[in-house]
Amino acid sequence: DKTLYAFADQIPGPKAFPIIGSSHKILKKSEEDRFKIVQDMLAKYETNEMTRFWLGPVLFIFINEPKLIQQVLNSNDCLEKSFNYKFLRLDKGLLAAKRETWVDHRKFLEDSFRLDVIKSFISIFVDSSNQLVASLSQTKEQDETKIDIFKLVSRSSLTMVLATSFGINASEVHFDDEILKAVEELIKIISLRCHEPVLYFEPIYRMTRNYYREKKYRKRTTYYLDQVLKERRELISPNNNLTTASSVATMRTDITKDEEMGITVQEIPNISLNSHSFIDHMVMQSGAFNDEEIHDHIYTFVAAGYETVALQTFFTLLLLAIHTDMQERVHCEVVNVGDINCESLDKLNYLDRVIKESMRLLPSVPIVGRETREEVVIGDKKIPKGITLLIHLFNLHRRKDIWGDDAHEFNPDRFLPENVAQRHSHSFLPFSEGLRDCIGKVYAMYAIKTMLVTILRKFKVSTDLKFGELSYKADITLKICQNTKIKIEKR
Ligand code: HEM
Protein backbone atom coordinates (compact mmCIF):
# COMPACT_ATOMS: atom_id res chain seq x y z
CA ASP A 1 0.00 0.00 0.00
CA LYS A 2 3.03 2.31 0.24
CA THR A 3 3.26 2.02 -3.55
CA LEU A 4 -0.36 2.96 -3.74
CA TYR A 5 -0.03 6.19 -1.77
CA ALA A 6 3.21 7.24 -3.43
CA PHE A 7 1.50 6.93 -6.77
CA ALA A 8 -1.51 8.88 -5.57
CA ASP A 9 0.55 11.78 -4.31
CA GLN A 10 2.56 12.14 -7.51
CA ILE A 11 -0.40 12.57 -9.81
CA PRO A 12 -0.78 16.18 -10.90
CA GLY A 13 -4.23 17.68 -11.28
CA PRO A 14 -6.93 19.35 -9.25
CA LYS A 15 -6.78 18.32 -5.63
CA ALA A 16 -10.52 17.81 -5.54
CA PHE A 17 -10.17 14.89 -7.89
CA PRO A 18 -7.14 12.75 -7.07
CA ILE A 19 -6.35 9.58 -8.93
CA ILE A 20 -5.48 6.50 -6.98
CA GLY A 21 -3.87 3.60 -8.77
CA SER A 22 -3.87 0.03 -7.65
CA SER A 23 -0.94 -2.12 -8.57
CA HIS A 24 -0.97 -5.86 -8.90
CA LYS A 25 0.32 -5.81 -5.31
CA ILE A 26 -2.98 -4.63 -3.87
CA LEU A 27 -4.87 -7.39 -5.65
CA LYS A 28 -2.65 -9.94 -3.97
CA LYS A 29 -3.50 -8.67 -0.49
CA SER A 30 -6.04 -10.31 1.79
CA GLU A 31 -9.63 -9.17 1.43
CA GLU A 32 -9.41 -7.60 4.86
CA ASP A 33 -6.34 -5.56 3.87
CA ARG A 34 -7.88 -4.50 0.57
CA PHE A 35 -10.99 -3.21 2.27
CA LYS A 36 -8.85 -1.29 4.73
CA ILE A 37 -6.71 0.21 1.96
CA VAL A 38 -9.76 1.55 0.13
CA GLN A 39 -11.31 2.73 3.39
CA ASP A 40 -8.09 4.55 4.44
CA MET A 41 -7.67 5.97 0.98
CA LEU A 42 -11.17 7.42 0.99
CA ALA A 43 -10.73 8.69 4.55
CA LYS A 44 -7.54 10.45 3.46
CA TYR A 45 -9.44 12.22 0.69
CA GLU A 46 -12.69 12.41 2.60
CA THR A 47 -13.15 16.09 1.99
CA ASN A 48 -12.63 15.56 -1.73
CA GLU A 49 -15.83 15.34 -3.69
CA MET A 50 -14.80 12.38 -5.81
CA THR A 51 -11.94 9.91 -5.96
CA ARG A 52 -10.90 8.01 -9.06
CA PHE A 53 -9.67 4.52 -8.47
CA TRP A 54 -8.21 2.03 -10.89
CA LEU A 55 -8.68 -1.65 -10.13
CA GLY A 56 -6.49 -3.32 -12.71
CA PRO A 57 -7.65 -1.83 -16.02
CA VAL A 58 -11.06 -0.69 -14.76
CA LEU A 59 -11.75 2.88 -13.65
CA PHE A 60 -14.16 3.44 -10.77
CA ILE A 61 -15.18 6.83 -9.44
CA PHE A 62 -16.10 7.03 -5.78
CA ILE A 63 -18.59 9.80 -5.09
CA ASN A 64 -17.88 10.98 -1.56
CA GLU A 65 -19.87 14.14 -0.94
CA PRO A 66 -23.54 13.83 0.24
CA LYS A 67 -24.80 16.53 -2.11
CA LEU A 68 -23.14 14.82 -5.10
CA ILE A 69 -24.38 11.40 -3.96
CA GLN A 70 -27.86 12.90 -3.97
CA GLN A 71 -27.35 14.06 -7.57
CA VAL A 72 -26.19 10.60 -8.65
CA LEU A 73 -29.02 8.73 -6.93
CA ASN A 74 -31.64 11.08 -8.36
CA SER A 75 -30.27 11.20 -11.89
CA ASN A 76 -32.17 9.33 -14.60
CA ASP A 77 -28.84 8.70 -16.29
CA CYS A 78 -27.43 6.86 -13.25
CA LEU A 79 -30.20 4.31 -12.82
CA GLU A 80 -28.23 1.52 -14.48
CA LYS A 81 -26.38 -0.88 -12.16
CA SER A 82 -22.63 -1.29 -12.47
CA PHE A 83 -21.32 -4.20 -14.55
CA ASN A 84 -20.50 -6.45 -11.59
CA TYR A 85 -24.19 -6.93 -10.68
CA LYS A 86 -24.19 -9.25 -13.73
CA PHE A 87 -22.14 -11.72 -11.70
CA LEU A 88 -25.28 -12.48 -9.67
CA ARG A 89 -26.78 -14.09 -12.82
CA LEU A 90 -30.21 -12.68 -11.98
CA ASP A 91 -30.42 -10.28 -14.91
CA LYS A 92 -34.20 -9.99 -14.86
CA GLY A 93 -34.44 -9.54 -11.08
CA LEU A 94 -35.07 -6.05 -9.75
CA LEU A 95 -31.62 -5.60 -8.22
CA ALA A 96 -29.65 -6.11 -11.43
CA ALA A 97 -32.28 -5.46 -14.14
CA LYS A 98 -31.52 -3.11 -17.02
CA ARG A 99 -33.26 0.23 -16.73
CA GLU A 100 -35.87 -0.51 -19.46
CA THR A 101 -37.18 -3.64 -17.72
CA TRP A 102 -36.67 -2.19 -14.28
CA VAL A 103 -38.97 0.86 -14.76
CA ASP A 104 -42.17 -1.18 -15.31
CA HIS A 105 -41.29 -3.99 -12.95
CA ARG A 106 -40.49 -1.70 -10.06
CA LYS A 107 -43.91 -0.07 -10.50
CA PHE A 108 -45.66 -3.45 -10.33
CA LEU A 109 -43.56 -4.77 -7.47
CA GLU A 110 -44.05 -1.71 -5.25
CA ASP A 111 -47.47 -3.23 -4.60
CA SER A 112 -45.91 -6.27 -2.96
CA PHE A 113 -44.18 -4.04 -0.38
CA ARG A 114 -47.14 -1.83 0.57
CA LEU A 115 -47.51 -1.25 4.32
CA ASP A 116 -50.75 -3.26 4.54
CA VAL A 117 -48.98 -6.20 2.85
CA ILE A 118 -46.08 -5.97 5.30
CA LYS A 119 -48.53 -5.78 8.21
CA SER A 120 -49.88 -9.14 7.05
CA PHE A 121 -46.32 -10.55 7.25
CA ILE A 122 -45.79 -9.68 10.92
CA SER A 123 -47.23 -12.98 12.18
CA ILE A 124 -44.66 -14.79 10.03
CA PHE A 125 -41.87 -12.61 11.47
CA VAL A 126 -43.11 -13.38 15.00
CA ASP A 127 -43.38 -17.15 14.43
CA SER A 128 -39.96 -17.29 12.89
CA SER A 129 -38.44 -15.22 15.74
CA ASN A 130 -40.11 -17.51 18.29
CA GLN A 131 -38.46 -20.49 16.59
CA LEU A 132 -35.14 -18.68 16.95
CA VAL A 133 -35.72 -18.04 20.66
CA ALA A 134 -36.74 -21.68 21.13
CA SER A 135 -33.38 -22.75 19.64
CA LEU A 136 -31.55 -20.32 21.92
CA SER A 137 -33.44 -21.64 24.94
CA GLN A 138 -32.24 -25.15 24.18
CA THR A 139 -28.63 -24.03 24.46
CA LYS A 140 -26.88 -25.82 27.28
CA GLU A 141 -25.06 -23.91 30.03
CA GLN A 142 -21.64 -25.09 28.88
CA ASP A 143 -22.34 -23.83 25.34
CA GLU A 144 -23.11 -20.34 26.55
CA THR A 145 -19.86 -18.82 25.41
CA LYS A 146 -19.96 -20.46 22.02
CA ILE A 147 -23.16 -19.24 20.44
CA ASP A 148 -22.97 -18.67 16.71
CA ILE A 149 -25.93 -16.37 16.90
CA PHE A 150 -25.44 -15.27 13.29
CA LYS A 151 -26.26 -18.76 12.10
CA LEU A 152 -29.49 -18.84 14.12
CA VAL A 153 -30.49 -15.37 13.00
CA SER A 154 -29.74 -16.37 9.38
CA ARG A 155 -32.06 -19.37 9.65
CA SER A 156 -34.78 -17.14 11.00
CA SER A 157 -34.40 -14.47 8.35
CA LEU A 158 -34.27 -17.03 5.50
CA THR A 159 -37.45 -18.58 6.90
CA MET A 160 -39.12 -15.15 6.81
CA VAL A 161 -38.16 -14.43 3.22
CA LEU A 162 -39.17 -17.88 2.00
CA ALA A 163 -42.50 -17.83 3.84
CA THR A 164 -43.40 -14.34 2.59
CA SER A 165 -42.25 -15.14 -0.94
CA PHE A 166 -44.32 -18.30 -1.20
CA GLY A 167 -47.29 -17.61 1.08
CA ILE A 168 -46.51 -20.37 3.57
CA ASN A 169 -46.27 -20.35 7.35
CA ALA A 170 -42.91 -20.11 9.10
CA SER A 171 -43.48 -23.55 10.63
CA GLU A 172 -43.83 -25.02 7.14
CA VAL A 173 -40.43 -23.85 5.91
CA HIS A 174 -37.73 -26.48 6.35
CA PHE A 175 -34.22 -26.37 5.01
CA ASP A 176 -30.92 -27.90 5.86
CA ASP A 177 -27.83 -25.99 7.06
CA GLU A 178 -26.36 -26.99 3.69
CA ILE A 179 -28.55 -24.36 2.06
CA LEU A 180 -27.22 -21.63 4.33
CA LYS A 181 -23.69 -22.78 3.59
CA ALA A 182 -24.34 -22.83 -0.15
CA VAL A 183 -25.67 -19.26 -0.14
CA GLU A 184 -22.73 -18.11 2.00
CA GLU A 185 -20.24 -19.74 -0.38
CA LEU A 186 -21.97 -18.24 -3.42
CA ILE A 187 -21.70 -14.76 -1.95
CA LYS A 188 -18.00 -15.33 -1.23
CA ILE A 189 -17.28 -16.56 -4.75
CA ILE A 190 -19.14 -13.69 -6.42
CA SER A 191 -17.43 -11.14 -4.15
CA LEU A 192 -14.03 -12.60 -4.93
CA ARG A 193 -14.80 -12.22 -8.61
CA CYS A 194 -15.67 -8.53 -8.08
CA HIS A 195 -12.20 -8.00 -6.59
CA GLU A 196 -10.25 -9.73 -9.39
CA PRO A 197 -10.42 -7.73 -12.63
CA VAL A 198 -9.01 -10.61 -14.64
CA LEU A 199 -12.11 -12.62 -13.71
CA TYR A 200 -14.45 -9.94 -15.07
CA PHE A 201 -14.09 -11.69 -18.43
CA GLU A 202 -16.49 -14.63 -18.48
CA PRO A 203 -14.33 -16.95 -20.67
CA ILE A 204 -11.40 -16.57 -18.27
CA TYR A 205 -13.63 -17.00 -15.21
CA ARG A 206 -15.03 -20.21 -16.69
CA MET A 207 -11.55 -21.71 -16.64
CA THR A 208 -11.29 -21.31 -12.87
CA ARG A 209 -12.23 -23.70 -10.10
CA ASN A 210 -14.54 -21.11 -8.60
CA TYR A 211 -16.74 -21.22 -11.68
CA TYR A 212 -17.45 -24.90 -11.02
CA ARG A 213 -17.92 -24.30 -7.31
CA GLU A 214 -20.33 -21.50 -8.14
CA LYS A 215 -22.30 -23.89 -10.36
CA LYS A 216 -22.45 -26.50 -7.64
CA TYR A 217 -23.69 -24.12 -4.94
CA ARG A 218 -26.13 -22.43 -7.30
CA LYS A 219 -27.64 -25.80 -8.15
CA ARG A 220 -28.04 -26.57 -4.49
CA THR A 221 -29.87 -23.33 -3.68
CA THR A 222 -32.02 -23.28 -6.79
CA TYR A 223 -33.21 -26.84 -6.38
CA TYR A 224 -35.44 -26.01 -3.46
CA LEU A 225 -36.72 -22.73 -4.84
CA ASP A 226 -37.40 -24.15 -8.30
CA GLN A 227 -39.61 -26.88 -6.91
CA VAL A 228 -41.74 -24.57 -4.81
CA LEU A 229 -41.90 -21.97 -7.55
CA LYS A 230 -43.13 -24.45 -10.14
CA GLU A 231 -45.90 -25.77 -7.92
CA ARG A 232 -47.04 -22.33 -6.91
CA ARG A 233 -47.00 -21.06 -10.46
CA GLU A 234 -49.21 -23.89 -11.64
CA LEU A 235 -51.53 -23.51 -8.73
CA ILE A 236 -52.31 -19.86 -9.18
CA SER A 237 -51.89 -19.57 -12.91
CA PRO A 238 -54.70 -17.45 -14.41
CA ASN A 239 -55.50 -20.40 -16.72
CA ASN A 240 -56.12 -22.56 -13.74
CA ASN A 241 -59.81 -22.16 -12.92
CA LEU A 242 -59.27 -22.02 -9.20
CA THR A 243 -61.36 -19.47 -7.46
CA THR A 244 -61.64 -20.51 -3.86
CA ALA A 245 -59.17 -21.31 -1.16
CA SER A 246 -60.86 -24.67 -0.50
CA SER A 247 -60.28 -25.89 -4.05
CA VAL A 248 -56.67 -24.84 -3.69
CA ALA A 249 -56.48 -26.85 -0.50
CA THR A 250 -57.11 -30.08 -2.37
CA MET A 251 -53.98 -29.54 -4.42
CA ARG A 252 -51.40 -29.95 -1.68
CA THR A 253 -48.19 -31.38 -3.01
CA ASP A 254 -45.55 -33.18 -1.01
CA ILE A 255 -41.87 -32.97 -1.72
CA THR A 256 -39.84 -35.48 0.23
CA LYS A 257 -36.37 -35.22 1.68
CA ASP A 258 -33.60 -35.03 -0.83
CA GLU A 259 -30.38 -36.00 0.92
CA GLU A 260 -28.13 -35.12 -1.95
CA MET A 261 -29.34 -31.54 -2.12
CA GLY A 262 -29.38 -31.26 1.67
CA ILE A 263 -32.95 -30.09 1.67
CA THR A 264 -35.99 -31.09 3.64
CA VAL A 265 -39.20 -29.65 2.33
CA GLN A 266 -41.99 -31.51 4.02
CA GLU A 267 -44.78 -30.07 1.99
CA ILE A 268 -45.97 -27.16 0.03
CA PRO A 269 -48.88 -25.92 2.10
CA ASN A 270 -52.15 -24.34 1.08
CA ILE A 271 -52.41 -20.91 -0.28
CA SER A 272 -55.45 -18.80 -0.66
CA LEU A 273 -55.89 -16.77 -3.79
CA ASN A 274 -55.85 -13.53 -1.89
CA SER A 275 -52.56 -14.36 -0.23
CA HIS A 276 -50.13 -11.44 -0.12
CA SER A 277 -47.05 -13.51 -0.94
CA PHE A 278 -44.59 -12.11 -3.49
CA ILE A 279 -45.16 -14.96 -5.91
CA ASP A 280 -48.94 -14.59 -5.77
CA HIS A 281 -48.69 -10.89 -6.51
CA MET A 282 -46.58 -11.56 -9.56
CA VAL A 283 -48.56 -14.44 -10.96
CA MET A 284 -51.84 -12.61 -10.43
CA GLN A 285 -50.60 -9.59 -12.42
CA SER A 286 -51.64 -11.46 -15.49
CA GLY A 287 -49.15 -11.02 -18.31
CA ALA A 288 -46.94 -8.55 -16.46
CA PHE A 289 -44.16 -11.07 -15.81
CA ASN A 290 -42.98 -14.10 -17.72
CA ASP A 291 -41.61 -17.24 -16.03
CA GLU A 292 -38.00 -16.18 -16.24
CA GLU A 293 -38.77 -12.80 -14.73
CA ILE A 294 -40.76 -14.28 -11.85
CA HIS A 295 -37.91 -16.69 -11.21
CA ASP A 296 -35.28 -13.92 -11.14
CA HIS A 297 -37.42 -11.60 -8.99
CA ILE A 298 -38.12 -14.23 -6.37
CA TYR A 299 -34.47 -15.28 -6.25
CA THR A 300 -33.49 -11.64 -5.96
CA PHE A 301 -35.80 -11.10 -2.99
CA VAL A 302 -34.27 -14.10 -1.27
CA ALA A 303 -30.71 -13.04 -2.15
CA ALA A 304 -31.20 -9.34 -1.36
CA GLY A 305 -33.42 -9.84 1.66
CA TYR A 306 -32.21 -12.75 3.70
CA GLU A 307 -28.55 -12.08 4.40
CA THR A 308 -28.86 -8.30 4.74
CA VAL A 309 -31.56 -8.67 7.40
CA ALA A 310 -29.63 -11.43 9.19
CA LEU A 311 -26.40 -9.44 9.20
CA GLN A 312 -28.01 -6.24 10.43
CA THR A 313 -29.81 -8.06 13.24
CA PHE A 314 -26.59 -9.78 14.18
CA PHE A 315 -24.52 -6.55 14.02
CA THR A 316 -27.05 -4.84 16.31
CA LEU A 317 -26.84 -7.72 18.80
CA LEU A 318 -23.05 -7.57 18.70
CA LEU A 319 -23.02 -3.82 19.31
CA LEU A 320 -25.42 -4.26 22.21
CA ALA A 321 -23.27 -7.09 23.57
CA ILE A 322 -20.33 -4.66 23.55
CA HIS A 323 -22.36 -1.71 24.92
CA THR A 324 -24.27 -3.42 27.73
CA ASP A 325 -25.56 -0.15 29.26
CA MET A 326 -27.42 0.57 26.03
CA GLN A 327 -28.65 -3.01 25.93
CA GLU A 328 -30.28 -2.46 29.35
CA ARG A 329 -32.04 0.61 28.00
CA VAL A 330 -33.33 -1.39 25.03
CA HIS A 331 -34.46 -4.14 27.40
CA CYS A 332 -36.47 -1.67 29.51
CA GLU A 333 -38.18 -0.48 26.35
CA VAL A 334 -38.96 -3.88 24.79
CA VAL A 335 -39.95 -5.78 27.90
CA ASN A 336 -43.34 -4.09 28.07
CA VAL A 337 -44.12 -3.98 24.38
CA GLY A 338 -46.95 -6.56 24.59
CA ASP A 339 -48.10 -8.16 21.36
CA ILE A 340 -45.80 -7.55 18.44
CA ASN A 341 -47.45 -5.69 15.57
CA CYS A 342 -46.56 -2.69 13.42
CA GLU A 343 -48.14 -0.27 15.90
CA SER A 344 -46.28 -1.62 18.94
CA LEU A 345 -42.99 -1.82 17.01
CA ASP A 346 -43.43 1.79 15.87
CA LYS A 347 -43.42 2.90 19.51
CA LEU A 348 -39.91 1.55 20.16
CA ASN A 349 -38.05 4.79 19.56
CA TYR A 350 -34.81 3.85 21.31
CA LEU A 351 -34.57 0.49 19.54
CA ASP A 352 -35.14 2.29 16.25
CA ARG A 353 -32.20 4.62 16.98
CA VAL A 354 -30.02 1.67 18.03
CA ILE A 355 -30.71 -0.15 14.74
CA LYS A 356 -29.99 2.98 12.72
CA GLU A 357 -26.71 3.51 14.57
CA SER A 358 -25.83 -0.13 13.85
CA MET A 359 -26.61 0.52 10.17
CA ARG A 360 -24.39 3.58 10.24
CA LEU A 361 -21.33 1.88 11.69
CA LEU A 362 -21.89 -1.55 10.15
CA PRO A 363 -24.03 -1.17 7.02
CA SER A 364 -24.79 -4.67 5.77
CA VAL A 365 -24.50 -3.34 2.19
CA PRO A 366 -21.19 -1.42 2.35
CA ILE A 367 -20.88 -0.25 -1.26
CA VAL A 368 -23.44 0.64 -3.93
CA GLY A 369 -22.54 0.76 -7.63
CA ARG A 370 -24.12 2.53 -10.61
CA GLU A 371 -23.14 3.03 -14.23
CA THR A 372 -23.57 6.24 -16.21
CA ARG A 373 -25.89 5.72 -19.17
CA GLU A 374 -25.05 9.06 -20.77
CA GLU A 375 -22.47 11.70 -20.03
CA VAL A 376 -23.58 13.30 -16.75
CA VAL A 377 -22.53 16.40 -14.89
CA ILE A 378 -22.04 15.72 -11.19
CA GLY A 379 -21.02 18.81 -9.24
CA ASP A 380 -18.84 20.65 -11.71
CA LYS A 381 -17.37 17.50 -13.29
CA LYS A 382 -18.41 15.86 -16.53
CA ILE A 383 -18.47 12.08 -16.19
CA PRO A 384 -18.51 10.15 -19.44
CA LYS A 385 -21.00 7.46 -20.40
CA GLY A 386 -20.30 3.90 -19.20
CA ILE A 387 -18.32 4.81 -16.05
CA THR A 388 -18.80 2.89 -12.82
CA LEU A 389 -19.74 5.16 -9.93
CA LEU A 390 -19.36 3.81 -6.42
CA ILE A 391 -20.81 5.06 -3.17
CA HIS A 392 -18.85 3.72 -0.23
CA LEU A 393 -21.56 3.74 2.44
CA PHE A 394 -19.26 2.33 5.12
CA ASN A 395 -16.92 5.27 4.69
CA LEU A 396 -19.64 7.89 4.24
CA HIS A 397 -21.16 6.76 7.53
CA ARG A 398 -17.86 7.32 9.38
CA ARG A 399 -16.75 10.67 7.96
CA LYS A 400 -15.56 12.90 10.79
CA ASP A 401 -16.61 16.06 8.97
CA ILE A 402 -20.21 14.77 9.00
CA TRP A 403 -20.45 12.70 12.19
CA GLY A 404 -17.92 14.49 14.39
CA ASP A 405 -14.63 13.41 15.99
CA ASP A 406 -16.39 10.51 17.68
CA ALA A 407 -17.63 9.18 14.32
CA HIS A 408 -16.20 5.74 15.12
CA GLU A 409 -18.15 5.41 18.36
CA PHE A 410 -21.56 3.85 18.91
CA ASN A 411 -24.06 6.53 19.95
CA PRO A 412 -27.72 5.93 19.06
CA ASP A 413 -28.64 9.49 20.03
CA ARG A 414 -27.20 10.68 16.73
CA PHE A 415 -30.61 9.65 15.43
CA LEU A 416 -32.63 11.87 17.75
CA PRO A 417 -34.78 14.02 15.41
CA GLU A 418 -32.98 17.25 16.38
CA ASN A 419 -29.60 15.71 15.47
CA VAL A 420 -30.86 14.20 12.21
CA ALA A 421 -32.11 17.66 11.20
CA GLN A 422 -28.52 19.01 11.40
CA ARG A 423 -27.19 16.64 8.73
CA HIS A 424 -27.51 16.40 4.97
CA SER A 425 -30.26 13.90 4.04
CA HIS A 426 -27.71 11.85 2.06
CA SER A 427 -25.22 11.38 4.92
CA PHE A 428 -26.92 8.15 5.99
CA LEU A 429 -27.94 5.73 3.25
CA PRO A 430 -28.17 2.13 4.49
CA PHE A 431 -30.94 1.42 1.98
CA SER A 432 -29.57 3.75 -0.70
CA GLU A 433 -31.98 6.49 -1.88
CA GLY A 434 -33.83 7.82 -4.89
CA LEU A 435 -35.81 5.85 -7.45
CA ARG A 436 -33.66 2.76 -7.18
CA ASP A 437 -33.48 2.53 -3.41
CA CYS A 438 -34.15 -0.68 -1.47
CA ILE A 439 -37.69 -1.83 -2.16
CA GLY A 440 -37.57 -3.97 1.00
CA LYS A 441 -36.59 -1.28 3.50
CA VAL A 442 -39.85 -1.21 5.49
CA TYR A 443 -40.03 -5.01 5.40
CA ALA A 444 -36.44 -5.16 6.67
CA MET A 445 -36.97 -2.77 9.58
CA TYR A 446 -40.01 -4.69 10.87
CA ALA A 447 -38.26 -8.05 10.42
CA ILE A 448 -35.15 -6.86 12.31
CA LYS A 449 -37.19 -5.25 15.10
CA THR A 450 -39.31 -8.37 15.55
CA MET A 451 -36.22 -10.57 15.91
CA LEU A 452 -34.49 -8.17 18.30
CA VAL A 453 -37.53 -7.65 20.53
CA THR A 454 -38.14 -11.39 20.75
CA ILE A 455 -34.51 -12.15 21.63
CA LEU A 456 -33.78 -9.23 23.94
CA ARG A 457 -36.90 -9.69 26.04
CA LYS A 458 -35.61 -13.09 27.09
CA PHE A 459 -31.82 -12.97 26.84
CA LYS A 460 -28.84 -10.85 27.78
CA VAL A 461 -25.93 -10.82 25.32
CA SER A 462 -22.28 -10.04 26.08
CA THR A 463 -18.81 -10.40 24.58
CA ASP A 464 -15.14 -9.68 25.35
CA LEU A 465 -14.67 -8.11 21.93
CA LYS A 466 -14.01 -4.37 21.79
CA PHE A 467 -15.56 -2.36 18.99
CA GLY A 468 -12.26 -0.69 18.07
CA GLU A 469 -10.62 -4.09 17.57
CA LEU A 470 -12.98 -5.23 14.84
CA SER A 471 -11.76 -5.44 11.25
CA TYR A 472 -13.87 -5.86 8.18
CA LYS A 473 -14.03 -7.13 4.65
CA ALA A 474 -16.51 -6.32 1.95
CA ASP A 475 -18.04 -9.32 0.30
CA ILE A 476 -21.12 -8.07 -1.50
CA THR A 477 -22.21 -7.62 2.09
CA LEU A 478 -20.09 -6.47 5.04
CA LYS A 479 -18.32 -9.12 7.07
CA ILE A 480 -16.42 -8.95 10.37
CA CYS A 481 -13.10 -10.81 10.31
CA GLN A 482 -12.97 -11.76 14.00
CA ASN A 483 -14.67 -14.74 15.55
CA THR A 484 -17.89 -13.16 16.73
CA LYS A 485 -19.55 -15.85 18.78
CA ILE A 486 -21.27 -14.08 21.65
CA LYS A 487 -22.31 -15.08 25.14
CA ILE A 488 -25.97 -15.37 25.84
CA GLU A 489 -27.75 -15.71 29.21
CA LYS A 490 -31.40 -16.18 30.04
CA ARG A 491 -32.95 -13.22 31.87
C1 HEM B 1 -31.13 -4.56 6.43
C2 HEM B 1 -31.64 -5.05 5.34
C3 HEM B 1 -31.40 -4.48 3.98
C4 HEM B 1 -30.46 -3.59 3.55
C5 HEM B 1 -29.36 -2.92 4.36
C6 HEM B 1 -30.68 -3.39 2.15
C7 HEM B 1 -29.94 -2.52 1.36
C8 HEM B 1 -30.18 -2.30 0.03
C9 HEM B 1 -29.45 -1.37 -0.78
C10 HEM B 1 -28.30 -0.49 -0.29
C11 HEM B 1 -29.96 -1.43 -2.02
C12 HEM B 1 -29.49 -0.64 -3.23
C13 HEM B 1 -28.49 -1.46 -3.93
C14 HEM B 1 -27.88 -0.77 -5.07
O1 HEM B 1 -28.33 0.29 -5.52
O2 HEM B 1 -26.91 -1.34 -5.53
C15 HEM B 1 -31.01 -2.41 -2.02
C16 HEM B 1 -31.75 -2.76 -3.12
C17 HEM B 1 -32.71 -3.75 -3.12
N1 HEM B 1 -33.15 -4.46 -2.01
FE1 HEM B 1 -32.54 -4.22 -0.12
N2 HEM B 1 -31.72 -4.16 1.75
C18 HEM B 1 -32.22 -4.83 2.83
C19 HEM B 1 -33.30 -5.70 2.87
C20 HEM B 1 -34.04 -6.08 1.77
C21 HEM B 1 -35.17 -6.97 1.81
C22 HEM B 1 -35.75 -7.60 3.07
C23 HEM B 1 -35.58 -7.15 0.52
C24 HEM B 1 -36.71 -7.99 -0.03
C25 HEM B 1 -37.43 -8.83 0.64
C26 HEM B 1 -34.72 -6.33 -0.32
C27 HEM B 1 -34.80 -6.25 -1.67
C28 HEM B 1 -34.09 -5.36 -2.44
C29 HEM B 1 -34.26 -5.24 -3.89
C30 HEM B 1 -35.19 -6.07 -4.75
C31 HEM B 1 -33.41 -4.22 -4.30
C32 HEM B 1 -33.26 -3.66 -5.70
C33 HEM B 1 -34.22 -2.49 -5.87
C34 HEM B 1 -34.21 -1.86 -7.25
O3 HEM B 1 -33.16 -1.87 -7.91
O4 HEM B 1 -35.25 -1.33 -7.62
N3 HEM B 1 -33.80 -5.69 0.48
N4 HEM B 1 -31.14 -2.92 -0.75
UniProtKB/TrEMBL annotation:
It is found in: Endoplasmic reticulum membrane; Microsome membrane. It is a peripheral membrane protein. May be involved in the metabolism of insect hormones and in the breakdown of synthetic insecticides. It comes from Polypedilum vanderplanki (Sleeping chironomid midge). Belongs to the cytochrome P450 family. Pfam families: p450. PROSITE patterns: CYTOCHROME_P450. Its cofactor is heme. Its main location: endoplasmic reticulum. PANTHER family: CYTOCHROME P450 4C3-RELATED, CYTOCHROME P450 FAMILY 4. It comes from the Eukaryota. GO terms for cellular component: endoplasmic reticulum membrane. GO terms for molecular function: heme binding; iron ion binding; monooxygenase activity; oxidoreductase activity, acting on paired donors, with incorporation or reduction of molecular oxygen. The keyword Metal-binding applies. The keyword DNA-binding does not apply. This is Cytochrome P450. InterPro entries: Cyt_P450, Cyt_P450_CS, Cyt_P450_E_grp-IV, Cyt_P450_sf, Cytochrome_P450_Monoox. Keywords: Endoplasmic reticulum, Heme, Iron, Membrane, Metal-binding, Microsome, Monooxygenase, Oxidoreductase, Signal. Heme binds at residue 438.
